[in-house]
Amino acid sequence: MSSGVVVALSGGVGGAKLALGLSRVLPADDLLVVANTGDDFEHLGLSISPDIDTLTYVLAGLDNPVTGWGRRDETWSFMETIGALGGADWFRLGDRDLALHVERTRRLKAGQTLSQITGDICRRLGVSTRVLPMTDDRVRTRVRSDDGWIDFQDYFVRQQCRPVVRELAFDGVEKARAQPDIMATLLGGKLRAVVICPSNPFISIEPILAVPGLRAALAGCGAPVVAVSPIVGGRAVKGPTAKMMHELGLPVSAASAAGRYDDLLAGYVVDTADAAGVRAKLHIAPTLMTTLEDRERLARTVLGFADSLT
Question: Fewest Cβ atoms nearer than 10 Å: which of 122, 160, 205, 270?
């Protein structure tokens, strides 16, 4: 087994599954999870970071296994009252989840960075793995449909991914600065591997890679970059990945996902039925994660594959 830090790039539900597996087979100091913040938005006056929160809840063992988002021990009095008052209730905020957003908003207004807040909340919830936002600056994913540009959460939650996706943009990314600890880790010479988790390449991974300096740092990090396909059996396991591929004129395949960052890849982990057309060095293994054992097994598989490429 190689030594060094593993950096995992992750969106929400799908990526968090592998991040959990990695957290269970690696010492806490040997794993850094980089969270997409393009999904972040302001709602009801609160600063909400959906992918950070999903990762935090999953790593803390507080996630809702049915929905894949939010907390498992949730109540909904706040949302019921907001709806009764005529307020915006399309983005569901449970009562316990709401407390996190209120506290994050308070701390941001007091001048703390998103990184500082995320680290402290993780510690208070018992998460020893380091979770960092890709940047402490404001980046917002937007979707162009046939009716024009809309905010990502409007597309994803309020409109349930119904609009046809014609184009994606990451507002503010040109001026964003990569989170300094992420850059220091990538360029510090003590890296074992970079793992691109099985998250949506368009809306979870590409916002991270679009932050100035991050893609170049990954290309020059000196460690193998290995991705896990979000496509299993020609279908997306979760979310609108397959729909987006189709609407953007791409085949719905593991190769299409890899094509978004295959210039970075030393290797690609795909399920048995999904190997066709991939240019990176392949490792074929079961990638569907339905149990905790699946998550740990895939984590070990990915790490072993990365070590073989060193």
Answer: 160
Q: Is the dihedral of CA 205, 211, 216, 220 positive or negative?
A: negative
Q: How many CB atoms lie within 10 A of CB 81?
A: 11
Helix/strand/coil for 19: helix
Q: For domain 5-309, which CATH number applies: 3.30.1330.60, 3.30.43.10, 3.40.30.10, 3.40.50.10680? A: 3.40.50.10680
Q: What is the pLDDT of residues 156-195, one digit of tens each?
A: 999 999 999 999 999 999 999 999 999 999 999 899 999 9
Instruction: Name the 3-class secondary structure at 5.
Output: strand
Q: For residue 169, give both structure tokens.
A: 């943009």
Can you give the residue ranges of every domain in the chain?
Answer: 5-309
CA–CA distance, 28 with 61 (Å, rounded to integer): 15
List the structure tokens of 18.
């592998």
